[in-house]
Structures are given as structure tokens and as C-alpha cells.
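Homework help board

Subject: predicted structure for assignment chain

Our instructor gave us this sequence and asked us to write out the predicted structure in C-alpha cell form, then describe one feature. I got the C-alpha cells but I'm not sure how to describe them. Can anyone check?
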Amino acid sequence: MSNYGRLDVTFTHGSGVRLYDDAGREYLDALCGIAVCGLGHAHPDVARALAEQAARLVHTSNLYRIERQERLAEKLAALTGLERSFFCNSGAEANEAALKIARKHGHQQGIERPVVIAMNGSFHGRTMAALSATGNPKVHAGFTPLLDGFLHVPYDDVDAVGAAAARADVVAVMVDPRLGEGGVGVPQPRYLAALRKLCDDRGLLLMVDEVQTGMGRTGRWFGFQHDDIVPDVVTLAKGLGNGVPIGACLARGAAAEVLGPGTHGSTFGGNPLVAAAALAVIEVIERDDLVARAATLGKRMLTAFRDRLGALAGVREVRGHGLMLGIVLEQPCADLVKQALAAGLLINVTADRVVRLLPPLIMSDAEADAIVDRVSTLIEQFLAGPA
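My C-alpha cell output:
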């Protein structure tokens, strides 16, 4: 179906930060499959884990115990401070699970039509509940009627959340620690901490969407850890499998006890193959200290972009956290994606005016500097206009 505006390039293989097309041309990948391939392409440890597991067992279903899935759940519990995991195949499915937890939790409290507060500018997925939670009318177009049970308020506005939470039917707050599709938005310090306190005071679940921010991208394992809090529900995908489709919905406390046998499920979720890949990803991130590396590289790139582009006419802001970077222009800049491709570089434009960069965590300093130089040159040429 024609639902993708695909670029006219076919990649045949990759290595680390680089991709190669069917004509043998090399590209620097500053997008890594939209924050998915945090370990870069063809990482030997992940490839080995997949090959070894595929040679033994790929799938049995969740009718039976899966040793690697159990190990992965234990590992994620230790990393997050949450207690239980539900495994699925994507970020949208992880968010669907979170929303079902919120609704069932509300019903258990006697609330017939539970309401979840979500944020303007958010993106939680393309399935109907996740789409309804998403605070972006552009992606809603053509798919109404959406599901009811959602209140949208401005991002990074705790007072707005507090006012909306005055309703007796509100059961949860769903939030991105950093906006991704919404333009690489970075909230004020302690935003999540303030939401945590509000939810504690009102008896609400705090549900944090870490699909794009998780697995070290922001310079901590998870974005919520910058505020030294623990949510009630956390959703993961993207970087968890380094390209192998896996999602996870983690919960603690009452939220961890909501789903019982027969209430939710996934045929493929957490099968031996994807669990092996995720375990390998976590092992590499830990062994190579890539969370700290993402923080260091992010500061290096953010400083370099601000030094080169910060005072340039037409650049509104350079922002980001870790290896989640955005350069906000004064004008729409979607054409930069094709121009970058022609220059041997993969980038993305989101929210019409934001050049979004989500490079791999395994970059060398030289590769990070090369991305900064190529992106900056493209933006300078774009803003200068035709020669």
C-alpha cells in the first residue's frame, strides 16, 4: 500500500554508523531506523545472539514458559525499578497495553468510563487507542471517530494537568519524557517529578512512554531517570531490540496486578528470538558503558551545533538531550531529507520545521563530528537559498 513516502534508495547492508546502497554508495546514518538501531548496523553480538537462538528455537507462544523472556523481564525490572513486564511487538502495542491497564484499573475502582490525561504534541502510535492518546490532530485526520476517554493538555504544563485531573473519572497521566515526533521537545527540569507528586496526591497512575527515549538514548537508561522518579507504567520498544521487533509494557504496584490470564495477550510477544536479541542489546550497552557514552556524545554534538548554527538567521533553536537532537528552523524544511540523502547522510524532519537526529550510541568522536559538519553545511546551504 502507498502509505509510506519512501525515498528512492535501497540499502543492502550496514556496519556500525554506516549504510550501503545497491549501487555501493556509503551513507552516515544519523537516524538509525528512527531511534531503533542504537548499537548501529550488523552489531556482531546481536547478530550472534540471533543466529544462535534461531538455530535452537524461534517460537513456542506464551502458553508456555520462555526462559529468555523471564531473564529479560528480570533485567528490565532491575534497570527500571518496576516489577512486571508484558512483551509485545512494537511501541504502539506497548502503549495499547498501558492504556488497557489504565482503563481496567479505573474499572476496578468503580469508574465506568475512565479518562487518561495525555499531552499535546505527543505521539504514542498508530493503533486506535494509541492514536487517540496522541496529541496531534494531523495524524488523526481520516481516522475519526477516535476513542473517547482522553483529555489533552499542553506539554510541560503541570498546572494544566492538575486542572484536568480535578475530574473524578481521571485515572492516569500519560507522558513522553522528551517529545520525539512532536519536535524533540525538552521540558523544564523536574517536570516529571512534579507529575509524579501530582499523581501521588490524586491517586493516579503515571505512565511514561519511553519508546523513543529508552535504552540509553538521552544519556540515562530511561528518560524518567533524569528526574529521579519511578513511574507506575513504562513502555519500551525501538532500541530494545536493535531492529528486531519487540515492545514491552512494564508496571509496578497496583498497575502490575491489573492484567490477569485472558485479559490481554500477544501471539509473538517476547518469543525466544526477540528476547535473545534484547538481552544481547542490554549486555552490550552495559559492557561498553554506552549510556554514559550517549551523554558525552550528546553534549559534544549539541555544543558543536550551537556554536555553528545558534546565531544563524533562520535557526530558531538547537535543543536535545543525549543523542536525541533537534534543530528548529523558522521555515518548513522537509526538503532537507532528500538533500541530506544526496549528500550521503540520513536525517529526519518532524513537526515540519525540526531537523531530528537520532544517531547510534556507538559512534566515534570523529563520526559524531562528521554528522555535525554535514548537517550544519546542509542547513547553511538551505537557509542561504539558491545560489
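Reply (TA_rk): Your C-alpha cells look well-formed. For the description, you could write something like this. The mean pLDDT is 97. That's the kind of observation they're looking for.
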